Amino acid sequence: MDVLKRFAVGAVYPVVALIIIGIFWIAQLSGLKAMDSIYNGLILMFPLVVSIGIAIGMSKDQSGAAALAGAVGWLVYGAVVVSLNYPKDGAFNPTTMSANFNFLSGIYMGITAGLLYNRFYNIRLPEWLAFFGGRRFVPIITAVVALFIGAFVAAIF
Length: 157
Description:
- With 157 residues, the chain is mainly alpha-helical.
- The chain contains seven helices and no strands.
- It has one domain (2-156).
- Helix 4 (64-84) crosses helix 6 (103-120).
């Protein structure tokens, strides 16, 4: 039940972003090109916002390191899925785009980053690697895990 509660707390952040997107959607209906570009950019990056929000909510102390891990995880995941599914002839593949840039990818990368933060935020590394210990280790391990999740999703699609 605690995990579900933390997930719900993290889901509030993307809802706030949806309100902002709605404001720019109304503004872009006026015909201003700048508002249209802002709206399209926000829609394109919405899964990133979801990943960051869920990672913050899932972490024990709503740390910025969890937010960074959520962003890094989603970006690495997206790069892996696109690069492994990039066709040799350079043709556009809508399946790859839907597997990479959908709302669900933000959710599971946010959950992954939050859970990894809870597991590794206080890790102690050897003295010569101590700089990368603790909260600094979380984005690193999230990037590695996102690499494998991206490869798995790319193999499915």
